[in-house]
C-alpha cells in the first residue's frame, strides 16, 4: 500500500511490479474455479498482493479518468435493471466500508444519523452527505458513483429460480467480452463459449459455489490473458481499435515486443452483499509488460513454460494464438546473463536450468535441500526425462549428512552406463554431488546441474586438509570449522575435489 496514491506512473512503476498478482502456481495452466478466501496476503518474489478487497495503486487517477471517458462514449457499459436498485446501493455501501477499512487516512465513511452518512475521499477531494436509498442525495446512480472512485469493474448477479443473472454493473475494462450484450443473461449462458469449461464441469462448479456464498465471507480468484499495450479497455465493442494489434505485433523487433506485450491479470472478488443478497463480482485488472515481468526471474521462467505448453484451443479463445509462441520464446531469451568468473577456475552457473539430454539411456535426478526452486527444477527435469526413458528421482536433505552421501553413492553405483545425472540445490550440495559423481566414474557429458543459490560453498582448508560447508564466497573470508583459523577463500576451484581452496588470511599460519 503506497503512502501517496496519486504519484505518476514513472515515479512509482516499482509498486506495479511489487503488487502484481502473478497468476501461475505451476508450469501449466488449465481452467479451474481456483477460488480462495479473500484478504489473505500473498507473498511473491517481487513483493505482496491481496491484503484488501479493493486495491489502490499509482494508476488510480489515470484509470478512473479512462473509465470516465469510456462511460461518456459508451453508456451501455453501465446498466442497472430496475429490480437491482437496492443491490446497487448495497454494493456502493459495501465498497465504502472496504475503502474505509483499507485506506483510513484517505477514505472515511461516518454515520451522521439514522440512514445518514458522510463519505470522504481525500485523494479525489470528495465530501458527500447522503441518505442510504435516497437517490436525490447522490450526484449519480450509486453504482456509477462508486465506480468513479475504485479501479475495479463491478458486475452484480441476482439469484432467482436457482440461477444467477448478471443484471447490473459498470464494466469499462472488459477483456474481449461485451457487458452491454450480456446484461440480463444467466451466468451459465455468459460462459457458454469458453472452451473446455462445460465438458470439464468447471463452470457448473463455479455456479454452485457462487450460489452458496455467504455475507461477510469474500472469496477471490484470478484470470489472465495477454494484451498488446497498456490498454485496459479491450471490449468487443471496440475490437476494430485493438484487434489488428494481434497481427502487427508479430512484425516488431524484440525490444518493442517486450515493451508492448503485457501479461494481463484479473483479480476477481466474489462477495455476497449483506442487505440485498446479490452477488458482487469485482474485477480488478493488472498489467505488466514482458520486459518488466522478466526482471523477476521466477516469473519469467514460469510464464514462458505456461505459454509454451498452453493448449491451442485455450490460446485461441484467449486471442493470443498468433503471438504466444513468440512471447514464450521472448521470455526464455530474456534470461539474465550469468556473471563472468572473477578468477581462474571458478564454476559458471547458468541462470536457467539446462534442458534434459534426451539421448541418455536413463536418468538420475538428484534434488538436494528444501529450497522451493530445487523442487521446481527437479520436477520439470523428471517430467521431461520420464517421457524419454527410465528415470529415478533422489531427494536428499544435505550432503553434509553421511546417510545422504551414502544414498547418493548407492544411486550412482546402480546407474547404468549412459545415464544422465542431473543435480540441483545450493552451491555446496551441487559441487559436492558432482565431485562424488565424477569419483564414481561419470564423465562431463553425463552431468548437468543447476544451482538455486550461492549462499554456501565447499571449502578446502590447506592447513587442516579437510573440506567443510561454509557460508561465504570466493574472494571473501571464513573461519575454518576444523582448525578455527581465519581463512581467505581463493578464487580457485577444483572440480575433482568439488571445493574451493582456502588458506590463512593475510598469510598467517
TrEMBL record:
Protein name: Dimethylamine monooxygenase subunit DmmA-like C-terminal domain-containing protein
Lineage: Bacteria, Bacillati, Actinomycetota, Actinomycetes, Mycobacteriales
Superkingdom: Bacteria
Protein's organism: Gordonia alkanivorans CGMCC 6845
Pfam name, any one: DmmA-like_C
Domain Dimethylamine monooxygenase subunit DmmA-like C-terminal: 459-501
Amino acid at each position: 500500500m503506497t503512502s501517496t496514491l496519486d504519484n505518476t506512473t514513472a515515479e512509482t512503476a516499482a509498486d506495479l511490479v511489487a503488487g502484481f498478482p502473478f497468476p501461475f502456481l505451476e508450469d501449466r495452466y488449465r481452467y479451474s474455479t481456483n477460488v480462495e478466501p479473500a484478504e489473505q496476503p500473498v507473498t511473491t518474489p517481487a513483493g505482496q498482493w491481496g491484503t484488501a478487497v479493493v486495491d489502490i495503486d499509482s494508476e488510480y487517477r489515470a484509470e478512473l479518468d479512462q473509465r470516465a471517458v469510456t462511460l461518456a462514449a459508451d453508456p451501455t457499459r453501465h446498466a442497472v435493471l430496475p429490480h437491482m436498485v437496492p443491490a446497487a446501493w448495497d454494493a456502493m455501501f459495501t465498497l465504502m466500508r472496504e475503502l474505509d477499512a483499507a485506506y483510513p487516512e484517505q477514505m472515511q465513511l461516518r454515520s451522521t444519523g439514522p440512514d445518514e452518512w458522510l463519505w470522504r475521499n481525500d485523494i479525489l477531494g470528495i465530501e458527500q452527505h447522503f441518505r442510504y436509498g435516497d437517490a436525490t442525495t447522490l450526484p449519480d446512480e450509486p453504482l456509477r458513483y462508486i465506480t468513479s472512485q475504485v479501479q475495479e469493474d463491478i458486475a452484480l448477479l441476482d439469484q432467482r429460480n436457482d440461477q444467477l443473472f448478471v443484471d447490473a454493473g459498470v464494466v469499462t475494462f472488459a477483456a474481449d467480452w461485451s457487458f452491454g450484450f450480456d446484461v440480463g443473461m444467466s451466468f451459465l449462458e455468459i460462459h457458454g463459449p469458453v472452451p473446455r469449461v462445460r465438458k470439464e464441469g468447471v463452470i457448473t462448479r463455479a455456479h454452485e459455489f457462487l450460489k452458496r456464498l455467504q455475507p461477510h465471507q469474500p472469496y477471490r480468484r484470478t484470470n489472465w490473458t495477454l494484451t498488446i499495450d497498456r490498454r485496459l479497455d479491450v471490449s468487443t465493442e471496440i475490437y476494430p481499435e485493438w484487434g489488428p494489434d494481434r497481427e502487427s505485433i508479430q512484425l516488431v523487433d524484440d525490444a518493442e515486443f517486450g515493451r508492448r506485450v503485457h501479461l494481463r491479470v484479473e483479480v476477481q472478488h466474489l462477495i455476497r452483499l449483506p442487505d440485498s443478497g446479490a452477488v458482487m463480482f469485482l474485477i480488478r485488472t493488472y498489467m505488466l509488460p514482458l520486459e518488466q515481468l522478466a526482471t523477476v526471474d521466477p516469473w519469467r521462467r514460469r510464464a514462458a513454460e505456461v505459454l509454451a505448453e498452453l493448449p491451442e484451443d485455450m490460446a485461441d479463445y484467449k486471442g493470443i494464438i498468433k503471438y504466444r509462441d513468440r512471447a514464450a520464446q521472448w521470455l526464455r531469451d530474456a534470461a539474465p546473463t550469468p556473471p563472468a568468473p572473477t578468477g581462474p577456475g571458478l564454476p559458471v552457473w547458468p541462470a536457467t536450468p539446462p534442458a534434459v539430454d534426451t539421448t541418455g539411456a536413463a536418468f538420475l535426478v538428484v534434488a538436494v535441500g528444501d529450497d522451493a526452486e530445487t523442487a521446481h527444477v527437479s520436477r520439470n527435469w523428471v517430467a521431461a526425462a520420464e517421457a524419454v526413458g527410465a528415470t529415478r528421482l533422489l531427494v536428499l536433505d544435505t550432503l553434509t549428512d553421511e546417510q545422504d552421501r551414502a544414498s547418493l553413492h548407492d544411486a550412482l553405483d546402480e546407474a547404468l552406463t549412459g545415464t544422465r545425472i542431473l543435480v540441483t540445490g545450493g552451491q555446496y550440495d551441487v559441487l559436492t554431488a558432482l565431485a562424488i559423481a565424477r569419483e564414481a566414474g561419470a564423465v562431463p557429458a553425463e552431468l548437468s546441474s543447476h544451482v538455486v543459490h550461492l549462499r554456501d560453498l565447499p571449502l578446502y582448508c590447506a592447513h587442516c586438509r579437510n573440506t567443510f560447508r561454509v557460508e561465504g564466497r570466493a574472494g571473501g573470508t571464513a573461519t575454518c570449522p576444523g582448525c578455527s583459523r581465519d581463512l581467505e577463500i581463493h578464487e580457485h576451484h577444483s572440480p575433482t575435489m568439488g571445493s574451493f581452496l582456502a588458506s590463512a588470511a593475510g598469510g598467517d599460519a
